[in-house]
Fold these 2 entries.
Entry 1:
Amino acid sequence: MAPLGNEKNQLYLGLFIHSVKLGELQYLHDTAVCVDKSGKIVAVEQQYDQKKAEETLYPKLGWKTDDVTVTIAKEGQFFFPGFIDTHIHAPQYPNVGIFGKSTLLDWLNTYTFPMEASLSSLPKARRVYTRCIQRTLAYGTTTAAYYATIHVPSTNLLADLCLSLGQRAFVGRVCMDNLGPDYYLDESASQSLAATRATIDHIRSIDADFDLISPILTPRFAPACSVDAMAQLGALHKETNLPIQTHIAENVDELKLVRDMFPDSKNYADVYDRFGLLGKRTILAHAIHLSDEEVDLVASRGSKVSHCPCSNSALTSGVARVRWLLDKGVGVGLGTDVSGGYSPSVLDAARQAALVSNHLAMPSRTGEKQIDAEAEDDRERVRLSVEEVLHLATRGGAEVVCLGEKIGGFEVGKEWDAQLIGLGLVPDEDDGTESKQDEDQDQEHDTGNVDIFGWERWEDRVAKWVFNGDDRNVKKVWVRGRLVHQRR
Amino acid sequence: MAPLGNEKNQLYLGLFIHSVKLGELQYLHDTAVCVDKSGKIVAVEQQYDQKKAEETLYPKLGWKTDDVTVTIAKEGQFFFPGFIDTHIHAPQYPNVGIFGKSTLLDWLNTYTFPMEASLSSLPKARRVYTRCIQRTLAYGTTTAAYYATIHVPSTNLLADLCLSLGQRAFVGRVCMDNLGPDYYLDESASQSLAATRATIDHIRSIDADFDLISPILTPRFAPACSVDAMAQLGALHKETNLPIQTHIAENVDELKLVRDMFPDSKNYADVYDRFGLLGKRTILAHAIHLSDEEVDLVASRGSKVSHCPCSNSALTSGVARVRWLLDKGVGVGLGTDVSGGYSPSVLDAARQAALVSNHLAMPSRTGEKQIDAEAEDDRERVRLSVEEVLHLATRGGAEVVCLGEKIGGFEVGKEWDAQLIGLGLVPDEDDGTESKQDEDQDQEHDTGNVDIFGWERWEDRVAKWVFNGDDRNVKKVWVRGRLVHQRR
C-alpha cells in the first residue's frame, strides 16, 4: 500500500507554468511553491528564492529547514501540472500502433477483444499493467481514467498497481453483457453488476476514501450492454454517486447499430440518459457525431467529453468539434484512448488535438474560397492553440474527472500533481572537436528532441515542447507530493 | 572533405526489411548483404550466416576475412533503407514547432523570412545547419533535398557540412527576387542567377561529379520570382539538367496570388511549365490544391511531388490527395517541410501521412453515411497503409529525387544508405525488485517508446515502430557505406 503522506514538507522553486483559463498560460517566474506532508499546496509566492522562503514562508507555515526537501527547476526547466488522461484502456496497451486499416467495429473484434480476453491471466495482466502505468507516468500522466477488462481479479490488480506505483486513477471493470464475442462477455446483467460491486469493494479495501484510486462505473458502450445492465448501473450510480465512463458517437456504423438496437430512444445520448447514466460525473469518450439536440442534452446533464484525437484519426472515426462542445458549455479533456489511440502520451494527444482542429478549418479541396467573412471567422475559431490544448490536457481534464478542486493547476489548496519539464539547449557554435561532439551526444541523449537555441521566448519554448517533446523532457513526476517517476 | 570510399568491405547480417513496391514490404530474414569499399551493394543472399558468407561469398567477391567489417542486426533489430526527405528548409530548423495560428503567407512574414535572413551570419548558419544535419541523420534521413537561404556563403557552408557529416543532399540556394521583404530579397533576376551559379560552382569544387552533394535549382515559389528569374532558371536547367525544387498549390490564398500575378497562365502548374521548370527532375512540394488539368500536366512532364503532411496540418493548408496523385502516375515522396512541418523526422511524416489520409476518408460530420458502395470503396482506397507510407519514405522518395537506381532499397548495385532499427523488449514478468527496475529503466532509456512484448508478428512490430518510434530506435545510420551516426 502506498504511503498516505510524505516524510517531509517540500519546497519547489523556479518557473511554474500552468493554464489559468482556456487559452491562457500563466508563467510564474522565480516562484516558490510549498507542499505539506499530505501533498497539498500550502503556499504559492512569486519573487521568492530559497533564502526568502526559509526566512518568511517557513515560520508562517511552522516548517523547520531540516524538515523540508527542496526541488529547484534549473535554468530552462519548468514545473507543469501533471497530465490527465481522461480515457485509456490499460489492457490494450500492448496493441498501441496496431490497427491496420480497421475501423471501430472490426477493430474491436480483430485486435481488442482477443487482447482483453487474454488478460484473464494475472501474470500477463501484471506485466501489461505495470508497463502501461510506468509508461504513462514517464509521459507525465498523473491521473488516468482506466478501462480494465471484464475480469475482476485483474481489474483489482490494476487498482493495486496504480496505488503502489502512485498514479491517481479511476479504475473501471468493463461491463459488457451483450453483442461481445462468446469468449469475452459478461454472463448476464446481474453477473455484470456483481462483478462491478466486487471491484468497488476491493478498491474500498485498499483506499477507503478513494483518495488516490476510485472505482468508476464502466458500461463499455451502449451496444455492448443489455438494457438490464444499463438500468442496474444507473441505479448503482444513484446509490453510490460513483463516476461513470463510456463511449458515445465515435463511428458512423456504431451510430446505426445504436439506432437499430434502441429504436425507442431519440438518439444515442438519450439511450444513456434514460438509464440515468448521463450525469455530472459521466465521462463520454469521443462525441464526434453528436447532433445539436444531443449536445444540448449532454450539456444540460453536466456530463463531460474526453476528446481522443489520436484514436479518431487512426480509426478514421472523424474529428470531434471541440470548440462547438466548449461553446455549448460541455467540459472537455483529452484522452489517449490507448489503443485506438496509438500513443500513451497525453502530450501526443495535445499535439494531435491542435492538428485535427486545423483539419476542421481547412478549405475545400477545390482551392476556391467562396465563403463570406463571417464564415471565415467561424472557421478560424475552431482551431485550437497550443495554450488551449495544454488547458485541455490539465485543467480541462481535471474538470472532466470531477477533480477540478484538487488538481490541474498550481493554487493553494490543490494537491501537488506535477511534472518537471526540461528542454534541450543547443550548444553554442560547435568547435568541431571530438570531445565537444561527445558532449553534445550526451546532452541529446538526455534531453530529447526539443532544441532550444536560446533566443526563443517562453511561449515559443512551450510550443516547441508541445510539437517535439516526449518522455525525455519529463524529468520528474509527482502525485500528491510523492515522487513517482524520475529520469536518470 | 569526406572520404570517397570506405577502408574495408562490409558484411551485414540479419533481418532486412524494405519496400519492394507500393504497399509491399519484404522481410529478408537471416540474410547477408555485402557492401564493397565504394559503398555499393554487391551481394544480397538469403539463408546466410557469417560462416556461410565467409565460405561462399567472400571467394566469389575476392574478399579476405581481415578486410571485412561485420555488422549484425541482433534479435529484434533490422536494417531498413535510409529515409529520404524530399523537402526540408535547413535554415528554418530552429523554428520547428513555432507557427502559432498562422497560415502560409503570414507565417512566411512572421517567422520564416526573419529567421532565414539571420542566416547571413556564418557562425549562426554553422550552428543551425550542423544541428539540423545531426538531427536528421539521427532520425535516419540519409538523403535530404534542402532549401538553404538566399546567401551564397552560408548555402555553400550547408553543402560543406552535408559532405563532411556524410549526408547525401541536394542543396539549393533560394531564388526570390520578387514580393519578399526588403531585408531579404535577391536584387534582381540576374543577381539571383549569378548567385545560383556561384553555389553550383562551389559544390562542383567539393564534389565534382555531385556523387554525394548536388546543387538544385530553387525558385522559392512562383509569387516570389520575377518572370525573368524563372525564365533564366528554366534556361539554366536546360543547360545543366540540374534538378529543380519549388512549391505548388499549398494554400488557397497563395492560389489566388498566383492567379492575380500570372493572369496569362492557365493555372499554377502552367506558370512553371511555360518557363521550362516542370520537368522530370522537378520536385513540387505540397500539391494540395491541384486541379485535374494540372495533375495531368504534372504527370505528363514527369515531375514529382513531395507530400508534407506535418506541415499541411500545422499550417491548415489542406490534405494532399496522395492516392489520386499516384493513380495519375505522379511519383510521390515524403517531406518534413521543416519548419512549416514541426518535426525533422521522416518517420513522423510517414505517421502523419497515414493519419491525414484517413481524414480524406472520414464521413461527413452529420453522422449519416449516405453514399453508395462504390463511393465507399473509393473512400476506403484513399487511406494509406503503414507499408505504403514506408514506401513513400524510401523508394518513393528515391524516385522523387531521381535516385531510384541508387538508393531506396536493398538490391545489388544500389548504394548502402541504411539504418539499423532496434525496438524495445518489455521484460518478462516484473519481479518487483529494485535492481530489476533499474535494469528496465536502462533499457527504456536506450530503446525509446516502442514496447515489444514478444508475441507480435513482424508486421505488427513495424506498425508499432511507425506509430511510436523515434530517434532512439535508430541505432546506426550509413550513407554510401559510411557510418554517419550511431547511438551510444
Entry 2:
Amino acid sequence: MTDSTKNAAILLIHCQDKPGIVMTVTEFIHHNGGNILYLDQHVDGGRGIFFMRIAWDLAKFAIQREKIAEYFETLVGSRYQMTSQLHFSDTKPRMAIFVSKMPHCFYDLLARYESGELNVDIPIVISNHDKLRKATERLGITFHCLPISKENKPQKEREQKTLLQKHGIDFIVLARYMQVLSDDFVSDYPQRIINIHHSFLPAFPGGRPYHNAYERGVKIIGATSHYVTAELDAGPIIEQDVVQVSHKDSIEDMIRIGRDLEKIVLARAVRHHVHHDLLVYENCTVVFE
Amino acid sequence: MTDSTKNAAILLIHCQDKPGIVMTVTEFIHHNGGNILYLDQHVDGGRGIFFMRIAWDLAKFAIQREKIAEYFETLVGSRYQMTSQLHFSDTKPRMAIFVSKMPHCFYDLLARYESGELNVDIPIVISNHDKLRKATERLGITFHCLPISKENKPQKEREQKTLLQKHGIDFIVLARYMQVLSDDFVSDYPQRIINIHHSFLPAFPGGRPYHNAYERGVKIIGATSHYVTAELDAGPIIEQDVVQVSHKDSIEDMIRIGRDLEKIVLARAVRHHVHHDLLVYENCTVVFE
Amino acid sequence: MTDSTKNAAILLIHCQDKPGIVMTVTEFIHHNGGNILYLDQHVDGGRGIFFMRIAWDLAKFAIQREKIAEYFETLVGSRYQMTSQLHFSDTKPRMAIFVSKMPHCFYDLLARYESGELNVDIPIVISNHDKLRKATERLGITFHCLPISKENKPQKEREQKTLLQKHGIDFIVLARYMQVLSDDFVSDYPQRIINIHHSFLPAFPGGRPYHNAYERGVKIIGATSHYVTAELDAGPIIEQDVVQVSHKDSIEDMIRIGRDLEKIVLARAVRHHVHHDLLVYENCTVVFE
Amino acid sequence: MTDSTKNAAILLIHCQDKPGIVMTVTEFIHHNGGNILYLDQHVDGGRGIFFMRIAWDLAKFAIQREKIAEYFETLVGSRYQMTSQLHFSDTKPRMAIFVSKMPHCFYDLLARYESGELNVDIPIVISNHDKLRKATERLGITFHCLPISKENKPQKEREQKTLLQKHGIDFIVLARYMQVLSDDFVSDYPQRIINIHHSFLPAFPGGRPYHNAYERGVKIIGATSHYVTAELDAGPIIEQDVVQVSHKDSIEDMIRIGRDLEKIVLARAVRHHVHHDLLVYENCTVVFE
C-alpha cells in the first residue's frame, strides 16, 4: 500500500452506511479531474457504519487545495452526514517524542528518522531525565528535561504544552514514557498521542505487565500501541504483536524479548498515523493497509 | 469479510488500470438498483493492473440474473477490456476430494462439511487406496477407489474425468493425494484444482519436504496451498502458513507438527475458492479479505 | 522430542534447587542399567525451583517397574524433598470428552483418535445434548446424554462421576463444553481436566470472548488450553496461540477464525498431557518439549 | 535462559551418543566444587549425536580456569571422543561490523551496543562506502572505508584481515554488507562470520529476494541469519523469522516490512553467538535456549 505521489489528497470518511456512497465519492473526484491512487472502504455490518480511505493525484484536480474540504462537504459530505478528514501527502507532520530512561523505542524511532524511513519532522524530545540528551542533540533535535513530581506535575505539563505549541507539534509519541499524562493534557491532543504498552492489552494493563505475565504463566507475550485516552491503557488499539515465551523465560528474559516487540509495534503505529491510514470509531481503529 | 446474503452477485474483475473504473462499476450497480454489500479493489502499481471484487444484493436489481454478465460486458467490461467472472452467492459449488492414505486433511475437510462450515456439496471422493472408504460413505458420499500405476494412468485419469463430469464437479481438492496429475488432466481444470504442499514453497518442492527441511536445518516449516498447474508445485499460491521448529524436532516431529498446518492452510484455500475471494494473475493470486 | 520406545519410564520431578541433583538422578538410572532416552531440566531462578523430565529405557533396568517409585523415593527423592510422578510409556491413558453442540474441537479430537495420532483410549463421551451421538457411536465410543439444569446439576454430576469411574477414566477433555463444573467435581480431578478457552487468557475470560474482543478492537485473537481449577478460566495455562484479525472481521468472522485456533491449541495440550510432558507449579506449567 | 553470573564456565559438547554422558559430565563439575547454573542436552536420534551446553559457577571450582579445558579433555572428553568448546562468561567477545549503505541493521546493532544490551566490544566498522562514518565515530568506534572492486578485492581483503587482527576481532557481523567474501577470507573465520539474508532461506537465495518473492506471489516473507560458508547463502541457519504479506504489498513494501525482520533476526543470532548458545553440526545449528 503506497501513495508515494508528491501531491496527493487523502480523505478519510465515516458515516452511516447507505447505498451509493462509493459512487458519489468517486464521481466527485473523477469528474473534477482527480486520478484515484488508492481506495479502500469497509462496512462494519455490526455497527452499520461505512468507512473509507481514498487518495487521489492533485496534479490535474480542478478544485484548489484549500477549497477541497469545503467543496467536498457541500457536495458530498453533508448529503450523507459524513465525518471526514482531509490530508495532503506533501505535508510532513511534526512529531514530539516523550521518553524516560529506557532507550530501545527511542533509539529505534531516531534510527528510522535518521535513515529517512519516517516521513516526519522531529523538532523536540521531552524527558523527565537527562539521560538521552546527547543521543537527541547529536541529530540536531532540541532536548528538554522536565523532571516531574506529584507536586509539580500541573506546572510541568503547562511547560510541556508551551513547548509543543512553540514547536508546532502535530502529535506526540510516548516512547516508554513512564509518566501518566493528566486528563487535561490528554484532552488537548485527541487521537494525537500514541503510546506503546508492553503487554497484549487488555491483558496486563498497568505498570508491571511482564511481572504479571510471568506470574500468570502465559505462553505468549505481546505489545500494544494505542491512542492515549483518559482511561489508562484503554484507548483505541492501533497495532499489536506477540511472541512465544516458555517456562524457561525469566521476567528479565521477557523484558528483553519484549523490547524488540515494543519497538516494532510502536513504529508501525507511528507509520499508520503519519500516513493517515487509520480512523477511530467507538474506541476501535479502522486501519487501512 | 462476510457476504451472507442469500441472493447476491459477486463480480471479480481485472484490467489495465485507468481512471474512472470504480466509478463506472459502482454506477452500473447503483443505477440499476443494486445495493453494494462488499467492495474491494487493488491496483498493482508494479504491473499496472486494476483488480476488483464487488458484491451486491440482487433483491431489487433491475437486470435478470442470466442477463447480468451480458449487460455488464456490453456497458462496462468492453470499455476497459476487462476480464471478469460473475458468481452468485446462492449457488453451492460441487467439490471432489482426491486422497491417498494420509487422512488428516481429509478428515478435517469432512468435519467442516459435516458441521456446515464449508458451503459446498461433496458428491464424490476419489482415492488410489481403499482405506478411507468407510469414513467417506458414512457421510453419504460416493467413494471410488482407482489404484493408479505408471501403466494405467491415462486410462484411470479418463475414468476420473468421467466420474467428475457425471457428478457435475466444479473443482477438485487434492487432500494429500500422492499422485502427480498429467498435464492433460490439469489443463481441463484451470484454477479449479487446489493442492496442499507440505512446505513453505518455493522452498522444498517435491516429495520429501520435511526430510529436506530437517537436513537444511531450517528453524521454521510451512505449508502452501496453491492451484495446480503443469509445472509441479509451481502454481499460484493461495495461502501459506508457518510454524517454528528447532533442533529438537526430528523428521517425525516435523511431519506431525506439519499436519496441523496443512489442514488449516488447505481449508483456508478451499474457503477462498468457494467464496470467490480470489483472482489469479500472472501466476499470483489476489486474495480479497 | 520423541520417546517412542515401547517400554520406557518417564519421571517428572520438582524440588528446591540444590547442587548435584542432575548427577544424583542420572547416577540412579545409569548405575541400575537404564539408558537415558530424554533429559530436560529447568531451574526457575526467580522461584528457586528445580524441574526435570527424564525418560529411560527399561529393557535392562535392574529395578522392577512396580518397585521403581519406591526405590527412587528412598534413594533420591527423600534426599532432596522431591515431588515426583512416575509414568510408563506403554500405558495408554483413558480419556473422556465432554462436549455440548459445537463440534469443531470434538471432530478434531476424534479424527486424531481415529487416525492413531492420539495415544489414548476414549471409552466415553458425555454431552448435555444429543447432537453428537451419531458421530460418537460410529467410532464405537459410548455416548451419554446428560442434560444439565441449575436444579439437577448436583445429581447429574454424580451420574457423570459414576460413569467416569465405571470407565476407568484418567482425564477429561472439555471440548467446548458449555457448562461450568462445580468446585466439588473439579477437586476430584486435579490437573486432570483440560479446557479450551476461546481467548488469549487472561484477556477476555467468561462466556463471550469474541464479542468482547470485537468491542475492544483488538488486532489479534487467541485460544488458551488450561487445567481446570476452582476459579473460572484461571487454571494453569498449557498452550496458547493467536491469529491476526482486523477491523474487517465481524464477530462471526472471529468465531470462525477462532475455531481453527481452538482445535489446534486443545489438541496440543492433550498431547502434552498424554505424553507426560508437563508439570504444574504455583498455577504455572513447565512444558518440556 | 540467563547465566548472568560474572564468573561462569560454559561448555559446549558434541559426540556420538552413549550411555552415561550426562552423569559423567555432571560428576566432573560437581565433584570439583562447581555449581551447575544451566544444563541442556539434546540427542539427535536421526544422526545419533549427543549435544550439550552446560554452565557452572567458578567461584568454588577446584580447577584453575586455564587448566579446565585440559582436565576436562583428559578425564571426560577423550573417553567419549567429544568435540568441545570452553568459554567464560566474563570474557567480552570483540565484534567487527561490515556494512554497506543500508543502515537499518547497523543502527539497530549500534543502539543495542550503546544501551548495553549487547555484551560485546565493537572496536571497528568496515564499509565499502563512507556513508555511515559519522554514525560510527560518534560512538567512539573506528571506521574504515575500503571500497571494493573486482580488481582490488584480494588487496582489500588483505587490508581487512590486517585490521581485524590489529583490533583482536573474534567474530564479524555482516549487517547487509553487499559484497561476497572470498572463500579464502571465509575459511579464516569458520563459524565466526554471521550474515543476515533477506529471505526465508532456502527460498530465494541471491541478491534480489524481495523481487523474487513478489514475482512468485508468496504470502509470507522472511529473514535468515546464518554463518557464512563458502557456498553463498547456504551456511548453517541460526535464526529465521517471517511476516505475512499480501497482494497489496509492492516490492517496496516488502523491502520496508522486511527491514524490521532483518534487524531482529540478525540481533538474535548475534546474541546466541555472544552467549555461546549454539553449536554447528553437519551444516545445522543446535541452539540452546
